[in-house]
Structure prediction request, 200 residues.
Amino acid sequence: MATHKPFIVGIGGTTRAGSTSELAMRATLNMAEALGARTAVLCAAELVMDPYDPMVNTRSASAQRLVQLLREADGIIIACPSYHGSIPGLLKNALDYTEDMRGDARPYFDGRAVGCVVCAEGIQAMGTTLFTLRSIVHALRGWPTPYSATINSSSKPFGTDGQLRDEQVISQLKTVAQQVVQFAQQSILAQSMLNPPSQP
Prediction:
C-alpha cells in the first residue's frame, strides 16, 4: 500500500546561527532524509516571535509558518540548548503557539513522535533540561521517542566546517532520527489502513 513520505519538522537552535543545537537539529534531519523523510527547519531568527497571547488574533508570518508546518508534520524533532537548567524562553514561546492548534482534528502534537535533543556546556544541566522538554511534549499530547540525545557542547562535536565529528553523537542522533521516522511511517500506514482510498 503506497504511502507518502513522512514529513518531519525540526525546531530549535538559538538566535546565534550555527549553534551546537542548530547543527545537531540539522544533522538529525539529514539522517531522517536518508531514511526517506521530507523535512523542514525552524530555527534561529525564525523563532523570534512576540510573546504568545491567546487574546491576540493576529499572528506574525513566522508564527503562521510554525503552526502550519506543525499541522502538516508526521513527526517532530526539537533540539535545544540548556539555559540555567531548563529550555530557553525563545523555544518555550515558540511552542506556546501550538495553542493555536487546540481545535484541530490533530490537536497540538497528538499522534506524533517527538525526538528530543539537548545540548549543554557540560553534563550538569542535561538531565533537568531533557526532563522539562519531554514533560512539555507529553503536555502537548506528543509521544517522546524512547531514546533522546544529550550532547556536551564543550566537547566540540562539530568541526569548524559544521560537520559532525563525534561518533558517539552521530550514533545518538541517528537513533533519534530512526525512531521518529519509523513511528511516523507506522502511523501513516495505520491511517491508510483505517481510511483506505475509495474505489473508482
User: Anything to note?
Assistant: The longest helix spans residues 167-194. Helices lie at 20-34, 61-72, 89-96, 126-139, 167-194. The chain is about 40% helix and 15% strand.
